[in-house]
Amino acid sequence: MKKIIAVVNQSGGAGKTTLSQNIGYHLGLKNRVLLVDMDPQASLTAFMGLDKLKLEVEQNIYGAITDRVPIKVWNEPIHGVYFIPTNQELSSAELEIMRDMAVDNRMRLKIALEEIADQFDYAIIDCPPSLSLLSIMSLVAATHVVIPLETQYKCYKGTDDLFGTIARVKKSGHKNLEIACIVPNKYEGKNLHDKEILEEVTNLVQGKIHVTEPIPKSTAFANASKEHVPLALYKKSHPGVKMLQAISDYLEKL
Ligand SMILES: Nc1ncnc2c1ncn2[C@@H]1O[C@H](COP(=O)(O)OP(=O)(O)O)[C@@H](O)[C@H]1O
Ligand SMILES: [Mg+2]
Question: What is the atom index within ligand 1 of the atom nearest the CA of 217?
Fold first, then answer.
C-alpha cells in the first residue's frame, strides 16, 4: 500500500464522506483503491449503494476491528473502487474492545488493514464526526490525513482540537503521519464570510499545510450521493469534478 489516507474532521457535515467517495473514485481510475467506512452512521455505505441493514458481521469493518472475523472486502468493486462497509454495530465496538487489554486498541484498524495491504495501492478511511477512538484508530492506521473544512466560522474554530489530536497521535509513536491537505468545502465565494474564513485558514497554515482550491457549495453533491455515484458519474461537466481530480492527482504525487 502506497498511502493510507484518513479523511478526518470531528465536525459533521464537513464533507468527509463526500470527499472519501469522490477521491476514491478518481484515484481508482488508475489505482487499486480501498474505501473503508469507519463511521457507525454508515453514510459512505449508503452513498455506495449498500443497505447497512443487510450487512452480516463478517461483511463489515466492525467484525475485523473487534477480532470476530478476518477483514473482508466487499465481493465486487463499486465504480472501480473496493470497499469495506459498516453499520451501526460499529458504535458498540469502542465499548466492547475496551475490555480487551491484550491489544493496543488504537492499533486495531492498522493491524486489520495490514492483512490486505498488498492488494491495494491506496486506502481511504472515512472517519466519524468525532475525535473518538474510531477516529484515533483511523489516524494511527493512516500515513496521511485529509481535512475537509466547511468555510464557516464554527467549523474553523474546531480545527484547534483537530490539529491538537493529530499532533498527539504523531507524538505517541506515529511521527510519520502527515497532513496532506485541507480541502475547503461548501464554499460560497459571493459571501464575504466564506471568503474571510478561507483567508484565515490559509494564513493560519501557510507554509505548513497545503490548502486546495475550495469546492463550491452545490446541490449536485447531495444528488450524486442519492444516486449512489461519484460526482463525475452524476455530472461530468460539473466544475467540482476537475477540482476533485486535482486533489487526487495531488495526493498521488505526494
Ligand atoms: N460542496 C458541497 N456542496 C453542497 N453540499 C455538499 C457539498 N459537499 C457535501 N455536501 C453535502 O453535505 C452533506 C454532508 O456531507 P458529508 O460528506 O456527509 O459530510 P461528513 O461526512 O463530514 O459529515 C451531504 O448531504 C452532502 O451531500
Ligand atoms: Mg460522514
Answer: 3
